[in-house]
């Protein structure tokens, strides 16, 4: 794992990776990996909903004391405690809140890796039905020979079709790409 941390571009690189690795090791020792992930996910969802919380996390204008007080209030109101709450408090006290979103992503990656779960990003032009979504998950699970953590994104610019990124592999079967290919072929035929 130490070699991953030194690779640039790796989710375990830098401050975020070191903090996430330390948290993961502690959570594993305490048998609280899933509980910590749930707490971090709750905090991440709060950041997604609140511009004020995002500003608190990202802005260096707030003093460490102000950040710690505000984070304490947020954690208490959200009911985030245990290792996840302590980790977020430590990040605030150490003036590392700006890196917290990256720490959460790195922690999620460590959990997926430990559980043998493969992350798949799927982009579709419109929201699929539950049956179609289950078919996509089943197909990806067959290909990956592992459990899948599906990140579904809706991108109307695709027009139709699907774009799948599974590990380092990517398949673009979108209508937009097919139309662009036809357009390029037509230009070359002139």
From TrEMBL:
A Gene Ontology molecular function term of the record: proton-transporting ATP synthase activity, rotational mechanism
InterPro entries: ATP_synth_OSCP/delta_N_sf, ATPase_OSCP/d_CS, ATPase_OSCP/dsu
Main localisation: membrane
Keyword annotations from UniProtKB, A to Z: ATP synthesis, Cell membrane, CF(1), Hydrogen ion transport, Ion transport, Membrane, Transport
Stored HAMAP family: ATP_synth_delta_bact
Family to which the UniProt record says this protein belongs: Belongs to the ATPase delta chain family.
NCBIfam families according to UniProt: ATP_synt_delta (TIGR01145), PRK05758.3-2 (NF004406)
Gene: atpH
Domain of life: Bacteria
Function: This protein is part of the stalk that links CF(0) to CF(1). It either transmits conformational changes from CF(0) to CF(1) or is implicated in proton conduction.
Membrane topology term: Peripheral membrane protein
Subcellular location(s) of the protein: Cell membrane; Membrane
The name this protein goes by in its record: ATP synthase subunit delta
A Pfam match: OSCP
GO terms under cellular component: plasma membrane; proton-transporting ATP synthase complex
């Amino acid at each position: 794992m130490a070699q991953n941390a030194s690779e640039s571009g790796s989710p375990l690189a830098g401050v975020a990776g070191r903090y996430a690795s330390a948290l993961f090791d502690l959570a594993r020792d305490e048998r609280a990996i899933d509980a910590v992930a749930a707490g971090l996910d709750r905090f991440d969802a709060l950041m997604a909903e609140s511009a004020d919380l995002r500003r608190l996390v990202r802005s260096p204008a707030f003093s460490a004391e102000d950040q710690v007080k505000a984070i304490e209030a947020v954690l208490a109101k959200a009911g985030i405690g245990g290792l996840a709450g302590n980790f977020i408090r430590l990040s605030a006290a150490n003036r590392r809140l700006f890196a917290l979103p990256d720490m959460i992503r790195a922690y999620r990656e460590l959990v997926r890796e430990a559980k043998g779960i493969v992350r798949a990003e799927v982009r579709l032009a419109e929201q699929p039905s539950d049956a179609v979504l289950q078919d996509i998950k089943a197909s990806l699970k067959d290909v990956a020979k592992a459990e899948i953590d599906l990140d579904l994104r809706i991108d109307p610019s695709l027009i139709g079709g699907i774009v799948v990124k599974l590990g380092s592999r990517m398949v673009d079967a979108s209508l937009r790409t097919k139309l662009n290919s036809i357009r390029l072929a037509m230009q070359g035929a002139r």
